[in-house]
Amino acid sequence: MDAFYATVEQRDNPDFLGKPVIVGANPRHGRGRGVVSTASYEARKYGIHSAQPISQAYRLCPNGIFLPVRGKRYVHVSRAIMAILREYSPVVETVSLDEAFLDVTGTERLFGHAEEIGKQMKVRIKEQERLTASVGIGPNKLVAKIASDLKKPDGFVVVGREEVRQFLSPLPVSRLWGIGKKTEEKLANLGITTIGELALLSKKTSQDCFGKLGVVLWQYAQGIDDSPVISSREAKSISNELTFQKDVTDIQVLRETLLQLSEKVGYRLRSQNMVGRTVTLKIRWSDFSTYIRHKTYPKSIFMGDTIYAGIFALIENIDIHQPVRLLGVGVTQLSRADEHQMELFGIENGKSQIVDETMDRIKNKFGEKIIGRGLHQSGR
């Protein structure tokens, strides 16, 4: 969706149409704390953007319309929009209130090709909710996401499988997932500013420069992204989250917290006799933007260290470019453990299983917080 919170406010209040609307903290005449949540496109002409200090936004546009966040209202509108999307595909992955991925594979006979489906959805959202949506269509989530952002507001960009490299090549590297300011600066020092230039690096050179993140960035620069679209409705999950009292930048603290969360999720899985296949990492940054990534195992899992191994692999590929407010760990694609007895001996380690079962007995007797694993110096 385009400037979602702000456009909802403009729709609900016609007097706001065409005027700079800033949704976020109270500016208190330039002395307010907090940040901008969303700015209308009229406000963006003044240099106002999401995550900007609200005091700075007020100085840039003191005559703008500053409004508080109406969370319940935005949730209500979001649900109506997501209901429209689910009419076209059962596989809808909700990323946030105003963003979702759809896998329309197999729906062509009902609604036409992906391009036609995208056009229909835009029209439906405009007619039913009086809001504009930007749609990106591509062979994978990465390309579709970049395409959807490229021509906002009211954008519509289609990228065919054979067009991916040509499409990505001239774009700045900052368009890729995982590239924050620090990584962008390192790339610039290497003379790399576009995705096309990054794609020319060998996989080995990229890994030598950026470690595990370099492999992922190299794949993204080639237009490769194998992450599945996971239906938010169908995928029952077990998850735990922690909001820090103060935002955190220390990677060791983040890893320790993720291990604790992984242990909790594993304990809950075993307590409910459940297993899962996909682990989910959730990071909410200090500006309240949210980053979610998934890793799917070939077989079912249920132990804390296996969950953490997947989470560790995900966070190692992330540029921690700003303080972290919240961390979350989850497991989806759940099923009953007794349906996978033979399979469970594949990925899970026998010694680790004994350790988990021992800790489970202690937790069941003395409480969940009484015992847990610790990290090795490597972070694993």
What is the topology?
Layout: H1 4-12, E1 21-24, E2 36-39, H2 41-44, H3 54-60, E3 65-67, H4 71-86, E4 92-96, E5 99-102, H5 108-111, H6 114-129, E6 135-137, H7 141-150, E7 156-158, H8 164-168, H9 181-189, H10 195-199, H11 203-210, H12 212-221, E8 238-248, H13 251-271, E9 274-285, E10 290-301, H14 304-316, E11 324-332, E12 335-336, H15 350-366
Parallel strand pairs: 1-3, 6-7
Antiparallel strand pairs: 1-2, 4-5, 8-11, 9-10, 9-11, 9-12
What this model shows, in words?
The protein has 380 residues and is an alpha+beta fold. It has four domains: 4-69, 3-Layer(aba) Sandwich (MutS, DNA mismatch repair protein, domain I), CATH 3.40.1170.60; 84-164, Reverse transcriptase/Diguanylate cyclase domain (Alpha-Beta Plaits); 168-221, DNA polymerase, domain 1; 238-370, Dna Ligase, domain 1, CATH 3.30.1490.100. It is 41% helix and 19% strand. The chain has 15 helices and twelve strands. It has helices spanning 4-12, 41-44, 54-60, 71-86, 108-111, 114-129, 141-150, 164-168, 181-189, 195-199, 203-210, 212-221, 251-271, 304-316, 350-366; strands at residues 21-24, 36-39, 65-67, 92-96, 99-102, 135-137, 156-158, 238-248, 274-285, 290-301, 324-332, 335-336. β4 and β5 form a beta hairpin. The chain is globular, with a radius of gyration of 22 Å. The two termini are 39 Å apart. The model is unreliable at 341-350 (pLDDT under 50).
H and E order: HEEHHEHEEHHEHEHHHHHEHEEHEEH
Structural class: alpha+beta
Q: Main sheet, how many strands, which sense, barrel?
A: 5 strands, antiparallel
CATH homologous superfamily heading of the largest domain: DNA polymerase, Y-family, little finger domain
User: At the first level of CATH, what is the class of the largest domain?
Assistant: Alpha Beta
Give the tally of structural domains: 4
Provide the β-strand percentage band: 15-25%
Multimeric state:
single chain
CATH architecture of the largest domain: 2-Layer Sandwich
Low-pLDDT runs of 5+ residues are 341-350
Distance between the termini: 39 Å
Q: Total strand count, please?
A: 12
Radius of gyration: 22 Å
The gross shape turns out to be globular
CATH domain fold name of the largest domain: Dna Ligase, domain 1
Tally of individual helices = 15
Question: Averaged pLDDT, please?
Answer: 87
Share in helix: 40-55%
